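B., you asked whether I could sanity-check this one before it goes into the benchmark set. Here's the sequence:
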Amino acid sequence: MLRSRPTPSYQGDIIASRLSAPTTNHLAHHRTGAGEPLVLLHGVGESAVGWQPIHPALSDNYDVIAFDLPGFGRSPALPPGVTPAAAALADAIEGELDRLGVARFHVAGYSLGARVALELATRGRTLSVIAIAPDGLGTPLERVYQAAALLSGRALAMLLAPIATQVAATGAGRSLFFAMERSRPWQLPAADASQLLVDFAQAPGYLETVQASMVDVPTRLERITCPVLLLQGTADPLVSMQSPRFLAFVRHAQLQWLPGLSHVPISDDPQLVASLMLRFLKTATDKRGTRP
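And here's what the prediction gave me:
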């Protein structure tokens, strides 16, 4: 039975869920819409707020559940001794979906979230996968470069966090911090940019997750049988060469290049990204419906 929900202010609902998250072991999430479940996963340092530019368009058609990954946003970190590699992060997402009563779902992620989305797909519960700029198939040199860039970003975020509101108030300020991952950082809403900057600076799982990503390699990709769409910006300075490598391991995957867009294209061209995602999701659902 499909469930419909009111669609409150994104920021207000995120804040409410985050305030309750630290008092439980559950992951903070923002859920709106009705239809087949669509799980959204963000990248390193960010939170569910990163999906805000297209969340309303997606929730017009799907039951959208945007998570804060463990150790990011307002979600608690993984237990001590558990390495935050993609498999462990996927375990946490699966556990939360079990708690919410979600058995089968579409999943979309960007950056680290894309890597976790592909890990979830190896487990047989996903209806389809949209992986935006996934990492995990980098060469040693590419991994070192990516980690160095992320650690530099963390240092800058910690420096700017005390004045996050002022930095995010102008397009120039938003460009100062978000230019590495977004080709049009000035298009980020000021409130979202401020929250993402603070998330980046304060995420307790940041360093451990970056360290884990340096050695984490995806396995069992051949088990993925659902439709997979890879979206990759041509101006991505972090993982642009990694996305095509997944085509060799994921059957039936398709790759769509995004000309001029960077590592996180969601706010750079919301209309394009939303339209590509919705078209793919509809096609995946239609194909599943025609199977005998």
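One thing to flag: The chain has ten helices and seven strands. Otherwise nothing jumped out at me.
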